[in-house]
User: What shape does this take?
Amino acid sequence: MIKYLLAAALLLTPVSATARDVSSDDGNELLALCNDDGYFLQGTCLGIIKGTIVTLDNWALANKTSPYCRPDGATWGQIQDVVVSYLKRHPETRNESYSLLILKAQRAAWPCAKDVS
Assistant: This one.
C-alpha cells in the first residue's frame, strides 16, 4: 500500500525544469560553479567537494585503505584549489562525473607512496 501512495505522490508532484535545473554533475559544471563570481555558487562548489571528500575519507576509513594520501593540515581552500587546478589542466576529462574527477585530483596531488616490500 505504501508503494502505491509513494508512486501517486511522485506522479502528482509538480515538476518544473529549466535549463539551470537540469544538472549534468560533470567536471564542466563543477568548474563553472567554482569559477562563478557569486558566493552562493562558489559555496555550492565547495559543498560538492567537501561532500565527496568526506564520503571518500569515510570509505577509506571503513576499508582501512586510502586512494590518496592528503597531508595533515590541508585546508578546504587548498583542496578546492587542487580540484580546480586539475579541472583546468585536464579539459579532456571534464565530461566525467565530478566525484570521479575530485578523486583523480586528490590522487594526482597527493599520491600514496608505493609499498617497497
